Amino acid sequence: MKKQVQEEQVRINKYLAMCGVASRRAADQLVLEGKVVVNGRIADEPGLKVDPRKDEVVVDGRLLAKPEGRKVYILFNKPRNVITTSHDELDRQQVLDFIDVRERVFPVGRLDRKSTGLLILTNDGTLAHRLMHPSSQVRKEYLATLDEKFPPAMLQKLTGGMRLKDTGEKVSPCRAKILDEGMTVLVSIHEGKNHQVRRMFSTLGFEVKRLDRVAYAGLTPGDLRRGEWRYLSRREVEDLYKLCSES
Fold it and tell me: Which of 9, 71, 115, 194 could disulfide-link 49, Cβ–Cβ 3.0 to 4.6 Å?
């Protein structure tokens, strides 16, 4: 019996990789930085083993989904003022409050509280990790409604690859199209820096009043209203894997 229990346990770095959090090497660093909590206690040893069936693992405040059982893939149209984290000290409404499935799923990436639009949720750590990895260059499209009209003369500054004013961080070139007489801009990026689209416009002197993610990895909302979700089809999942493998 003892041998069977040992076989069911895995090293924490392998478990984090299985959940799509990070590579094993990066997972070791997360442990050393004290960002991993197992069953309520900070994991302070990279060699720690966990039981994927029973142990509760939290990374940076996010409870990880179990990487076993039936794989589930969900497309969700997030409303405004809903957060993507699994734990919130302010008891605000969370994405998982809308998802009624038996499996424990987690969002692939994040949308900030004020933003709306598409999120993928899954318990497939492999796909999640590939979608979020920079090398995959998964394209995301946003409708940004601004506080004032965006002039065509500034389009090159927006799309040419800028340096963000708050941190000096460089972002890659992107695509953009001016709509609604300049009050709305459709922006397509393949990076996932924190609040990237908002910060890009802020660098150019504009405030984003509303931000809606209207496409993610080729997926669009279709008939999904705010707060609604659906399962991805087998073909859609296969296309996501193909997209990551081709990048």
Answer: 9
